[in-house]
Amino acid sequence: MSKKLVIKVTAGADAPERCSQAFTVAAVAVASGVEVSLWLTGEAAWFALPGKAAEFELPHAAPLPDLIESVQAGGTLTLCTQCAVRRNITEDDVLEGVRIAGAQVFVSEVMADDVRALVY
């Protein structure tokens, strides 16, 4: 029986350790064969844009671009609709493979059978 992990990351450069933890857990889960859906909300929304992850620095942490690449290789990366609108981010602006979706999609993912959810 497969399980899915839905992770919502609300922190960005404003809380680097919490942000890095979310991306690290998501990447490790994908590498472990877990189906992962990583949601970028709040300040993490900026990481849906090309080049923004490369600006993120946290000593002794895996580079954020590498973690994003790992998540995208075996999971889903979603930018919150409202968070995108507040930051004037459109579908034309985001990294290839990033979807923009709202609360209804998030709720349907976390309410599905065999799903675990984490919020950072």
TrEMBL record:
Name of the protein: Putative peroxiredoxin
InterPro entries, per the entry: DsrEFH-like (IPR027396), Sulphur_relay_DsrE/F-like (IPR003787)
Upper taxonomic lineage: Bacteria, Bacillati, Actinomycetota, Actinomycetes, Kitasatosporales
Recorded superkingdom: Bacteria
